[in-house]
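Narrative summary of target 7.
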Amino acid sequence: MKVLEMPSEYSINSDADLVALYLFWSKEKEQRAVQLLNAAGGLRQLIEMGEAELTALGCSPVEARRIRAIREIGARFVAAEISRGKGISSAEEAAEYLQLKLRHLEHEVFGILWLDQRHRVISWEEMFQGTLNAAAVYPREVVKSALAHNAAACIMAHNHPSGVAEPSPADVEITERLQEALGLLEIRLLDHIIVGDDWCSMAERGWR
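Modeled conformation, tokenized:
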């Protein structure tokens, strides 16, 4: 299939077809898209690169910004879908959103998805940055945020820049401390999702 035929179903296009269609709009540039994808290691790796990394691969500043915009468009699309009064009913639904928020970051970020009684999203809030341990996460700040959002439940999340989405002993300790603090306010901690190259639901691992 030719890239410029504008198919009605883009899902049948290859990653290279889509990058060429979006970024370059020229059949002659398709090979360049293939080279970019090969150099980056794949579509996900490409759209998660910084502008300096993309420029180093041969992209112009405008092209680099357009590639960077792909991830932001995806994140906003998922956020809009979640925020339309739709409740989160599974770890997969939460992880889809949280991966777009956290997976591309080069430093650790801890945040909370505040939910109402029907588990509809009220807000996503980044709470803390840096290497996480029990001393770096302050229950008092989390409680203050919960009250400010009038939340009934929440899903905690943080990323592992190493790409390994396995909970550490510190992750388990933080989860238990915040579950206890929020429980005093009758706010349910539904899950703690760790984002790496993949994701891990601590609830599904049986921490509760």
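Helices lie at 15-24, 30-40, 43-47, 51-56, 61-82, 91-102, 139-149, 169-183.
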